[in-house]
Amino acid sequence: MNDSHVSRLKGSVRLIDLPQIRDPRGDLTFVEGGNHIPFDIRRVYYLYNVPVDAERGGHAHRDLEQIVFALSGSFRMRIDDGETKSEYWLRDPRKGLYISRMIWREMDSFSQGAVCMVLASHRYDEADYYRDYDEFLAAVRGRG
User: Fold this and answer.
1) Range of the domain at 107
2) Which CATH number is 109's domain given?
């Protein structure tokens, strides 16, 4: 592993902190496109009622960027850029995990009642997905 690869991974996946307004009646956090996140939001979706033993994700995107939040509960994000693997536990609704293009992601270990919200840079397009890990690896290594 070389230094340029490490810096590419760090720029491709990072935690983003959102502002928090504290109030005795409850806290408020907000997201502003173009201010808190590095892309215009084209799609928002969320996962809920996920069985605790389920796995989600298992793909990468050619062009799409995302920020993933645990709005309630917790889950694990396993991240892979083709050379380096890392994992993040999401459990704080003020912290989102930014994932750039060409990063393989898998999600598991959902707590009971977990809610995952995703902000995406593009609308849904099946052609943007790598769903086969070997095809993803070939593309990352310049053979795909």
Assistant:
1) 3-140
2) 2.60.120.10
What pLDDT was estimated at residue 6? 41
Residues 6+ apart with CB under 8 A from 117: 44, 45, 46, 68, 69, 71
Residues 107-139: tens digit of each pLDDT: 999 999 999 999 999 999 999 999 999 999 999
3-state secondary structure of 7: helix
- CA 111 – CA 52 distance, rounded (Å): 6
Residues in the chain: 144
Which residues are marked as active site?
Answer: 59
Backbone φ, ψ for residue 127 (5° rounding): -65, -15
Question: Would the pLDDT of 101 be above 80?
Answer: yes
Both tokens assigned to 14:
């990072």
Count of domains forming the chain = 1
| Dist. CA 43–CA 51, nearest whole Å | 24
* CA–CA separation, 56 and 116 (whole Å): 11
Q: Position 9: which residue type?
A: L
| Sign, Cα dihedral of 71, 77, 82, 84 | positive
- In whole angstroms, give the CA distance from residue 45 to residue 51: 18
